[in-house]
Specification:
two-stranded parallel ribbon; five-stranded mixed beta sheet; Transcription Regulator spoIIAA; single chain
Length: 238
């Protein structure tokens, strides 16, 4: 039923959610009024429809598309397809296995990339911007804490959560402790922007959301870099 409302409707030319509603109404009417006729439909016919619809969902072009999207997309897709097709698992268990694999890759990618950065080093100052990922979980606590603790004395740091949907409480505590205690001890000027009011973190606006290191300091930087957090950690700890 779910497959018919989605893929089959689209293949038939559906353009809006009205097709799903229409399908549901027709199905309800048929089941309520002519169940004896529905029971006369050969199971082989229903199986053929499901096989054809399943092929349209998993045709070779779809596999090629998922492969080009990367292993994080391809592996969960293939595992789900195989698990659903296995008789001993079935649809629900197969989809459940696929969801577990997808969650694994989601957590893995989130752990690897907690933030991106921009860095500009001048003769008398250093400016570092950290753009947090969309989801910052407790798995990112260690990498964020290590980065903050290795920031150079007297630098300017901007922590941007404008694109972040969720930040774990433990990570917020690390940020709060650094901003209120450790940053002043190291003469680090720190600004938080884009954090939700519910996080109860003091924010200021000496920079805007369109921050670029060149806008905060006149003159050419001695060194500029940007990228993922591991690259920044390597620079700070070398």
């Amino acid at each position: 039923s779910v497959i018919v409302r989605s893929s089959a409707n689209i293949n038939a030319g559906a353009r809006s959610k009205l097709s799903a509603i229409t399908h549901g109404v027709l199905l309800l009417v048929c089941v309520a009024s002519i169940p004896f006729i529905l029971n006369l439909i050969p199971k082989a016919t229903l199986a053929a429809i499901l096989i054809f619809t399943g092929y349209r969902l998993c045709r070779p072009a779809v596999f090629r598309h998922m492969w080009h999207a990367g292993l994080a997309q391809f592996i969960p897709f293939v595992v789900t397809t195989i698990a659903v097709a296995l008789p001993m698992l079935g649809l629900l268990k197969g989809v459940g296995i696929g969801m577990i694999i997808s969650i694994f890759y989601l957590l893995r990618n989130n752990l690897r990339i907690p933030f991106y950065y921009k860095r500009a080093v001048y003769e008398t100052n250093e400016i570092i911007r950290l753009d947090l990922a969309q989801e910052v979980s407790f798995l990112n606590k260690a990498s964020i804490k290590k980065t903050l603790e290795n920031l150079p004395e007297g630098s300017t740091v901007i922590l941007d959560a404008s694109l972040t949907e969720y930040i774990d409480y433990d990570v917020l505590e690390v940020i709060r402790e650094f901003q209120l205690t450790k940053a002043p001890d190291k003469d680090i000027k720190m600004s938080l922007i884009g954090f939700k009011h519910a996080y109860q973190l003091p924010q200021d606006s000496f920079v805007n959301d369109d921050f670029d290191p060149e806008h905060l300091k006149s003159g050419d930087a001695l060194q500029k870099s940007s990228g993922r957090y591991k690259k920044l950690l390597k620079q700070l700890t070398s």
